[in-house]
Amino acid sequence: MERLETRELAYFIAVAEELHFGRAAARLGIAQPPLSRAIKQLEHRLGVTLLDRDSRRVLLTEAGEVFLHEGRKAMDAVAASARRAQRAGQPVRRLVLVMKPISDGGLLGDILSRYEQEAEAIPVEVLLCGVAEQAVWLREGRADVGLLHAPHDDFSGFDVEELFVEGQVVVLPRTHRLADRETLHLADLEGETLPRLRGQDDTTATGPVVQDSTQLLQMIALERTIAVLPASASHYLRRELVCVPLVDAAPITAALAWPERSTSRALAAFVRVAAEIAEKHRHGTSMDTPVRSARATPQS
């Protein structure tokens, strides 16, 4: 089979998303007849039917569903490669790191200081994103490396270096009925108001919609919700908040992730330094067991 063109993918994705040839043609800025011919030719080349269509409706076949999913990824990869090439061609090169606020376990300062001493080091720009956006920004080519967390983030398509594993805590306002408990179990949270995270489907959550950690902590302080967060979040708590270890929650794995088969020496040096700092930290203060340090040393 001949190599597919990005134009063909763009045509199919438009029809698959609109499920209407007229609307797809208008979206693409072309006439409907050539769009219909292009889709038929694409199906002929692939040897499968992508769309079931008649005079009243257009539906995706099973093959069409798969091709839409893979086609979107391919188009994203093309766009990302263009962004990376543009950034690589800038007069001043930068290494762009994307992460959620308060998600580095206290390691980033040491990592950046140590990285500056590397011969391959280039300036690092830290981008703070909202919930579940790190992987998206990486795939879009807006960042070179990201700090992701399993099991919440999608690691597919990335090379990964695990940095640390930590437990989880429940973050509560000091006035909450559970705030004086030494530990909590998941069952203790039944009936509690939990936040709805933007971009994530959770039918059990009934609390306010939040998009980042700063907004979440504000909502907890206002007694609008409580939240389950990685144990290292205790270092960033507001004065009116406390955290209690959640003993039966799955551990959180923090890892650096970057596009597969990267050849960047600057990125390789950054990952190497991060792994070394994380290893030293593991031999110092363990992060595997949550600690209620925020009670003793609250921060404003």
UniProtKB/TrEMBL annotation:
UniProt GO cellular component terms: protein-DNA complex
Protein biosynthesis in keyword set: no
Transmembrane segments: none
PROSITE patterns named among the record's database cross-references: HTH_LYSR
Superkingdom field: Bacteria
Keyword Isomerase: no
SUPFAM superfamilies for the chain: Periplasmic binding protein-like II, Winged helix' DNA-binding domain
Molecular-function GO terms, alphabetical: DNA binding; DNA-binding transcription factor activity
Record keywords, A-Z: DNA-binding, Transcription, Transcription regulation
Pfam families reported in the protein's UniProt record: HTH_1, LysR_substrate
Domain named HTH lysR-type: residues: 4-61
Family the UniProt entry places it in: Belongs to the LysR transcriptional regulatory family.
Name of the molecule in the record: LysR family transcriptional regulator
